[in-house]
Specification:
The protein is an alpha+beta fold. The chain has two domains: 183 residues, 2-Layer Sandwich (Ribosomal Protein S5, domain 2), CATH 3.30.230.10; 138 residues, Alpha-Beta Plaits, CATH 3.30.70.890. The chain contains eleven helices and 13 strands. The strands form two sheets. Strands 1, 2, 3, 4, 5, 6, 7, 12 and 13 form a nine-stranded mixed β-sheet that branches. A four-stranded antiparallel β-sheet has the order 9-10-8-11. The chain is globular, with a radius of gyration of 20 Å. The protein starts with a strand and ends with a strand.
Length: 330
């Protein structure tokens, strides 16, 4: 049996510039971090004593005889692309809900690729995992998704990811003074809005609008360098990071009418009224988790103001997707 553990991610700046439709013309860059909330994929060979050849357990359970009959798009695509012939049993568990803006779909795909390759006795590099997941999601499943999630969850860490016009990407860790990193982490608050959504549907509206939103995307791309300078400079106050998050959110809302909603705006504004400096809705938009940046002394008031939402405490993590159990006997 194999169990892979793949982190979710929090994206800060540059989202939208990681769509191929944008960076193949203009280049792109994002800043994001993986967090200590995970997607777990367990995978084992299925003994040949059943009517089915594949058993896939997630929010539902599928028993099928052929890969083509699997309804879960990522499982069907990964098993097909990796030429799986033996029967398999696959289980999915996660610390946080799916379709919530934390890169959960890509964490699932990356984790499944990692688990199946490990089951075959193969070790994958972080970049290989990311590249394979990008190919499967964009080319095989043909989802309207960007490229940052697959890289962030495969590699782990607090990184700047740059995309060039040739379609390649480069990962640079954001080097931050330890005290400032702790200060940044202590200013971040994560709330679940209660709204789930399919990110590819939201992203499609953004992608179709890209030619009309050049000004916003250029500005959002520039904020990546500004954010990195704030984090690395001893002169800049960490609060400037929160103010920049607010400006980035205002720009992101202009990418599509589907990015935000009256309910999300109400949540965000309530957080600001209670003391938050800035924040953003994570992922493509439409729902999921909202990130707020707030001084620690204001956070109790914010939690009380948003007491109808689920608050999630989290920490940064650095390991990325990894195999946490390998037992070839099962």
């Amino acid at each position: 049996m194999i169990i892979s553990r793949t982190p979710f991610r929090v994206s800060f700046f540059g989202g939208g510039t990681d769509y191929p439709a944008w960076f193949r013309k203009n280049g792109g860059a994002v800043i994001s971090t993986s967090i200590d909330k995970y997607c777990y994929i367990s995978c084992r060979r299925l003994p040949p004593f059943f009517d089915h050849k594949f058993r896939v357990a997630y929010s539902r359970i599928e028993h099928v005889k052929d890969i083509s009959q699997i309804e879960h798009p990522s499982v069907r695509a990964v098993l097909s692309e990796m030429n799986v012939e033996e029967g398999l049993e696959i289980h999915h568990d996660a610390d946080l809900p799916a379709r919530s803006g934390l890169g959960s779909s890509s964490a699932f795909t990356v984790g499944l690729i990692n688990a199946i390759r490990a089951l075959d006795g193969k070790i994958s590099s972080k970049k290989e995992l990311a590249q394979k997941a990008i190919y499967i999601e964009q080319q095989v499943i043909q989802e309207s998704v960007g490229c940052q999630d697959q890289i962030a969850v495969a590699c782990g860490g607090f990184n700047k990811i740059k995309f060039n016009q040739q379609g390649d990407f480069y990962i640079t860790p954001v080097i931050i003074n330890h005290d400032k990193l702790e200060l940044l982490q202590n200013h971040l608050m994560l709330f679940f809005t209660g709204f789930s959504r399919y990110s590819s549907r939201i992203a499609q509206a953004t992608i179709s609008n890209i030619d009309k939103r050049e000004e916003q995307l250029q500005l959002m791309g520039q904020m990546v360098d500004e954010a990195e300078q704030i984090l690395q400079s001893q002169a800049d106050n960490v609060s400037d990071f929160g103010k920049l998050l607010h400006q980035a959110w205002l720009q992101k809302k202009q990418l599509s009418n589907n990015v935000s909603s009256p309910q999300i705006d109400e949540i965000y504004n309530a957080g600001l009224e209670a003391g938050a400096i800035g924040g953003k809705l994570l992922g493509a938009g439409g729902g999921g988790f909202i990130l707020l940046f707030a001084p620690p002394e204001k956070q109790r008031a914010i939690k009380e103001k948003l007491s109808n939402l689920i608050y999630v405490n989290f920490r940064f993590e650095t390991e990325g997707s990894k195999i946490v159990l390998y037992d070839p006997k099962y």
